[in-house]
Every structure is written in C-alpha cells, then in structure tokens.
Amino acid sequence: MSFDPITNAGVKALQGQVNTVQAQTTALTTKLAQIESALASLNTAQASSRKPLRVTEYTSGAGTHTFLPESTHQYITLVGAGGAGGAGYLSGSQHIQNGGGSAGYELRLRMALTATAAYQVGAGGGTSGAQGGRTVLGALAVSGGAGGSSDRSYTPPPQVGTGGVETGEAGTFAKGGNSTMGSGGQCYGLYGSIPLGYATGYGAGGGGSYGPGGFSPGTGGYIRIEEY
Hints:
Helix content is 20%, strand content 22%. By secondary structure, the protein is an alpha+beta fold. The termini are far apart.
C-alpha cells in the first residue's frame, strides 16, 4: 500500500498546526491561572485595607443609632461595665477583706443591621460591691462584671445576648479584673485610705480593700460600630 506524498505532507502540516494550537492553549491556561491568582490576592488586599464608611463610639448614656443606608455590614464591639470593688469592714475585732470587681463581658461580631438600633452603655459599679451595668445595642447585650465581695463570689453573672462573648476577668482580693480595653483598680488601703489605683479604660473592675477600707468603682462600658 502506498500513500500520496501530497496527502502525507498535508496530514503532517495539519498535525503541526494541532500541536501549535495545543501548546498555545496550554500557555493560555497557565497565564489565566496566574491572572486569577493575582486577582484573588488583589481582592484580599483590597478587602483587608478597605476603610469603614463610618466609625461610631459610645462611651456613656443611651439613645438611638441610625445606620448609613449604604452600609452592607458592620463590625460591632460591646463591652459591659466593670463591677465595683468591695470595701473592707470590721467584724468585731476582725478585719474583713473584700475582693475587687470583675471586668464586664465583651462581644465582637460581624452583623448586617439596617435602619436604627437603640443603645445603652452600662455604667460602672459605683458603690461598694455593685455590679456593672449591661451594654446594649438593639437585640445584642452583654452583662457587666459582678462587684467584689468577701465570699469570693465575683464571677460574672450569666450572659444575656448573642454569641461571640468573652467572659470578663474575675477580680481577686483587692484587685479588680482587667478587660481588653482597661485595667482593674487596686485598693489595698486600710481604714478608708485612698486606693492605690483606680480602674482605667472601659469595662474594668474596681479595687477592693482590707477592712475597714475604701473601694474603687468599676469603669463604664463601651460600644464601637464600624460601618462598611
């Protein structure tokens, strides 16, 4: 059997064209993968560097927050107020030491809220052993820290609200619990002496004392709303 030389040459030429197209297709596929990878990296970088449309902070009081109409989602931080430390006292001739207050609960989460939401920032415990106030934004709420007491019962009360909550640090004798946004007070004072240090920032517990001594109050709560 013999083949027409012209036909064989035509087949070879066609095969060469097919091989060229396959090589070009492979090169294009590789290039497209590189472009897609670069775009994905660019989108990630843009998302991480994107600035919020507006940031609002509330550190006291109550009211109504109105969300921007163009906001598609928000990152929200809520901090409950810190509990007050407990003042020490005398029981007969015995000096009773009271503990520091606990820090408030904290919550951070991503939400897609619209229209308006009522808010209330918890007030720090202001009298000996007083619990810190709740901080609320719409249906979200976090409890304040428990006040200091001599029976060491300063674990924060049960949480009220939605998930994503961090428990406030418990106070110890004389030292208030720290929050992520504040430091607890300290009050080793005797006989009503001035506290060694007041609680600072937001959501921190106040210091207790060895009786009959003073106490320091907890600090108030905090709300931060980042609108995107």
